[in-house]
Fold these 2 entries.
Entry 1:
Amino acid sequence: MKILLFTMIIVNSLFTQTGGVKVAVKPETIELRNGSDAVFDLKLEAGEGIHVNTRPVVIVESQSKGVELSIKELPKSGEYVDPGKPIKVQCKAAGLTAGVHRIDFIVGFTYCNDNEGWCRLGRDTSSIEIRVSK
């Protein structure tokens, strides 16, 4: 049992550690109608000597019912995500009541430290508000 718990702690730390990669979302609120979509910008801001790989792919996963998120455009600079350009994320809503909803989501990515020579899986949570009109 102790080995299983230790293994779960290690795996969890590998997936939750972001090691100098921060998620930024703009705008903070988007507007859309049920059944339609809108696009917002997501930026992975990496620290000095850190880059985010394009493979395995960056993922965005909604944690809110009635909302689907997908990457519409992933800016690349060679094998890396271009740090100077935002990732375009498409947001589709269906079955939500009119009003403002906070949408929580998970961003998954692989990042590497050039100076130390390692790569890790990163995972961070973020949110955006969507204003749903009738």
Note: Residues 2-133 form a domain with the Immunoglobulin-like fold (CATH 2.60.40.10).
Entry 2:
Amino acid sequence: MDVDRKLAEEGADWIAEMVSEDLGGFIPAELIDLVMELEVKLRSEHSDAEMDHQAMAERLLPLIEAEGVPTQTGGVSNHLLVEILHWEDEFLAMAGHPRTIRAS
């Protein structure tokens, strides 16, 4: 994602709020920050700026788990990560930084 840190922080807060409302639970902005950081790294490592959300979620999950985030039942899941990525798309489009993602 090619946005400055302040916009990324604003995005993390907004995405956390939207996902929390959408799924009916609490999603911390710190999780969104982590997803956004790791996502940039993965897109670069795999030379795939248009990686679809499902493939990204599958690659993110073990990295998030390695950071100590719970991924067992009731924790972060592929489904949650895909939702976060979709809301990130919405935020980036509204912020004037739309991205192209392959359909999964």
Note: The chain has one domain: 5-94.
